[in-house]
Design goal:
Elements lengths: L11 H13 L2 H22 L10 H34 L5 H37 L2 H39 L1 H5 L1 H12 L5 E8 L4 E6 L13 H10 L3 E5 L2 E7 L6 E7 L3 H22 L1 H49 L15 H43 L3 E5 L5 E4 L1 H7 L3 H4 L4 H4 L6 H7 L5 E9 L2 E13 L4 E10 L1 H41 L7 H29 L7 E4 H15 L4 E5 L6 E4 L1 H20 L14 E9 L2 E8 L27 H11 L3 E6 L5 E8 L8 H6 L1
Parallel strand pairs: 12-14
Antiparallel strand pairs: 1-2, 1-5, 3-4, 4-5, 6-7, 6-10, 8-9, 9-10, 11-13, 14-15, 15-17, 16-17
Helix pairs in contact: 1-3, 2-3, 2-10, 3-4, 3-10, 4-10, 5-9, 10-11, 16-17, 18-19, 19-20
């Protein structure tokens, strides 16, 4: 690489300042700033000297130009300061060319400051005298005379106009706001009152929004008034509580607020010469401007001084930068060679010295140095390539381990964990830095003495299945331990473990489904004959039994009822064992929730059901019957959990049972949340509640949640079990929002 300047051993703060200097002193960026500074200074001088066309003689252009000057000056100052600081630091370190840098900066800066200071002082002096000559007593007397003449010529017209306005407004105010606010009566009154006024050419009654209520035009050929004042003019008239005179090309108009606190305004146009009024207004404005200019003469001088100061700063900074650049050009070759030699000494063999700016013998020396550095760099590159190949193999191994789902631990000879991949940290619920460096029994105490058993037989892989509990969740892990042998001793072990909880759950589900199918088949066959026989006994022999017929009736009813209970249990077995494929269609999940709530309100009237449903019905792709069955099972379980609550230890009363159903529509997904204040979910074994025949109720079959989970899995959704805040359970069903029309039921069944 090319070396820009000389270098020696650097302290940390010097390195930081050098990097800042390199950031702000790029040659192209700095040169662009210098060109912009000169152009902006010349343009600013031309703008304030009146050398630009009138198109640019406005406050916005001048203000933007000054803002640009300031921004350019700040950027150029940052460049110069960074270069100066770096030059001073290099001088303190004795770098080549640093003293020349400083001397040339001082010289160029002096040449730039002195002329700029002299020009600024002379310009400020003459500017101050010019302003005083411009705003003098003779001009002030002339303006007073012009204003007096204009007001004298205008006063008769002003008096006539205000007299007509006063007569018309007084007459309208006597009629009252009710009459004036009525369009028909106001039109008649305005036409009658305006007819006798000599200066009036049209009149208009409007409200504060500018809506015309009545109007009259007195000039021939004019149908309606030609001017309606804007709302700001009416607001000023209401605030000043007097006549507001406005000049327009078509005449002089007067705006008057008719009633205090009301919203009615009178607008009158008068047949007077608007030119005289306009000239008097211009004289008044010019007099006010001159007065303001005289009062603010010091501020104006300060502004001009500030502009010249900005221009001077731009020129000064440009000159300093040019000095720095010229000095750097002179001292660059020697400094580059010294810097490159120092970098090679530190081990940077890629350092090269640029031949730009070097001539003669110095150029030959630069070429010899570059040739030597290139040979050293090639020799070291061969060594680096060999190390890189080894490192790539190591990284490949780490990438493979980080991508597998199984946890992998590398165990040292003393039993401590040397390396742990990402999956092991996820399965154990610990960060990798808390696993590495600890002994295996401390990280995975459930293994016990498994490591010693594996090392006792190093020729075989040790395998064991354990159950761990992390963060309230139980997992079943299949652990394998292999032993690495060195020359004469054990050098370490590799422990791999995988989460087989889902696999075991699936195996149990399949086994229980087979058991349920067999039980349902064996039990269902005799149920119907038993029930029919009991009903036949009751119908045929009840009248023949005279000794204790009530007992006979109770016994037969008990048989029928128990057979029905067994039948329902068998139906649950059959439903779980042969869950039909869902027939998917676009369904209104809100309607399904309402139907399930209606059924449970009827079946459990002692429980309060709360529904929070959105107004717009969310549409999901589902099987209407199966989702209805799932919602009914969950609401029924919630009611049974409320009935199974234990009384408080203090003997108080239990709170009323309450079940809430919320339906949340979150764009791409729809969530049904059912909460109850029942006895809640168990602490242990919670993750197995959705497995078959796992229940916490004495009379439960353990198939309700299993069926719900199977339904949600068939629908591509999810079932989650959580604790409710304040006690109880919270069950959530997650659906994907319908994005297209579902297939017909026949097509879904065939697939």
């Amino acid at each position: 690489m090319s070396v820009p300047s000389a270098s020696a051993p650097r302290q940390p703060q010097i390195v930081l300042l050098s990097r800042v200097g390199q950031l702000f002193t790029g040659r192209v960026a700095a040169l662009a700033l210098v060109v912009l500074a000169m152009a902006a200074g010349a343009l600013t001088y031309a703008a304030f000297g009146g050398l630009l066309p009138m198109t640019f003689a406005n406050r916005w252009f001048v203000g933007g130009l000054l803002a640009a000057d300031i921004v350019i000056a700040i950027g150029l100052a940052a460049v110069v300061v960074a270069r100066v600081v770096r030059t001073l630091m290099e001088q303190r370190r004795g770098a080549a060319g640093a003293r020349l840098h400083v001397r040339m900066v001082l010289l160029f800066g002096l040449f730039a400051v002195v002329p700029t200071f002299v020009v600024a002082m002379v310009s400020g002096y003459w500017l101050s005298i010019g302003l005083q000559e411009f705003v003098n007593e003779r001009i002030a007397r002339g303006m007073d005379s012009a204003r007096l003449i204009g007001n004298t010529a205008l006063e008769p017209q002003r008096a006539a106009v205000l007299a007509d306005v006063e007569r018309l407004s007084s007459a309208l105010q006597q009629l009252g706001p009710e009459t004036v606010g009525d369009a028909d009566r106001a039109q008649v009154a305005l036409g009658r009152l305006a007819a006798g006024l000599p200066t009036l050419m049209d009149a208009l009654i409007v409200d504060s929004s500018g809506t015309a209520i009545a109007s009259v035009a007195l000039l021939p050929g004019r149908v309606a008034p030609s001017y309606v004042p804007p709302p700001p003019s009416m607001a000023r008239a209401a605030a000043e509580a007097g006549a507001l005179i406005e000049l327009r090309q078509t005449g002089v108009y007067v705006v008057l607020h008719l009633f205090t606190g009301g919203e009615l305004f009178l607008v009158t146009g008068h047949t007077v010469d608007p030119g005289l009024w306009f000239h008097v207004d211009q004289i008044t404005r010019a007099d006010a401007f001159l007065t303001q200019l005289e009062n603010n003469s010091i501020d104006n001088q300060l502004r001009v001084f500030a502009v010249y100061a900005v221009i001077a700063v731009l020129m000064l900074l440009s000159a300093v930068w040019l000095a720095l650049t010229f000095a750097s050009r002179l001292a660059q070759p020697i400094g580059n060679l010294m810097t490159a030699a120092d970098q090679v000494r530190k081990g940077d063999l890629s350092a090269r010295v640029s031949e730009d700016g070097a001539d003669g013998e110095l150029k030959r020396l630069v070429r010899a140095f570059n040739r030597m550095a290139r040979q050293l760099d090639e020799q070291r590159r061969d060594l680096v390539d060999a190390n890189r190949q080894l490192d790539e193999r190591r990284q490949l191994t780490e990438a493979i381990l980080s991508g597998v789902s199984a946890g992998v631990l590398s165990i040292g000879a003393s039993g401590e964990v040397l390396r742990a991949n990402r999956s092991s940290a996820d399965l154990l619920g610990l960060p990798s830095d808390e696993i590495e460096g600890r002994r295996l029994p401390d990280v995975l105490p459930e293994l016990g003495d498994a490591l010693e058993q594996a090392r006792a037989r190093p020729d075989r892989a040790y395998q064991r299945q354990i159950e761990i509990r992390r963060d309230g969740v139980s997992r079943t892990l299949l652990v394998r331990i292999s032993t690495e042998l060195g020359e004469d001793e054990i050098s370490g072990n590799v422990v791999t473990f995988d989460d087989v909880s889902d696999l075991m759950t699936a195996q149990r589900m399949a086994a229980w489904a087979d058991v349920a199918r067999r039980i349902a088949h064996e039990i269902k066959n005799p149920l119907t004959p038993i029930q029919l026989s009991a009903e036949r006994l009751k119908r045929k022999y009840l009248r023949q039994i005279t000794d204790d017929p009530d007992t006979f009736t109770i016994c037969t009813d008990t048989i029928v009822r128990q057979v029905g209970d067994i039948g329902r249990m068998v139906d649950e077995f059959s439903s779980f064992a042969r869950m039909p494929r869902p027939t998917l269609a676009n369904e209104d999940i809100k309607e399904l929730c309402q139907q399930a709530l209606f059924l449970q309100r009827t079946a459990q009237p002692q429980i309060e059901f709360i529904a929070e449903l959105p107004e717009a019905p969310p549409i999901v792709v589902c099987d209407r019957r199966q989702i209805g069955q799932a919602l009914t099972n969950l609401l029924k379980n919630a009611g049974e959990a409320i009935e199974g609550r234990a009384p408080p230890p203090d003997g108080g009363k239990l709170p009323p049972g309450q079940i809430s159903l919320r339906l949340l529509d979150r764009g791409g997904e729809v969530r049904v949340i059912i909460e109850d204040n029942g006895k809640g979910l168990p602490r242990e074994g919670r993750e197995r509640l959705a497995e078959p025949y796992v229940t916490t109720r004495a009379k439960g079959t353990g198939l309700g949640l299993a069926i719900v989970k199977k339904i949600m899995e068939d629908h591509g959704g999810a079932l989650t079990l959580e604790d409710r805040e304040g006690g109880g359970a919270r069950i959530s069903l997650l659906f994907q929002r319908a994005t297209s029309q579902a297939r017909p039921a026949s097509a879904a069944a065939s697939s």
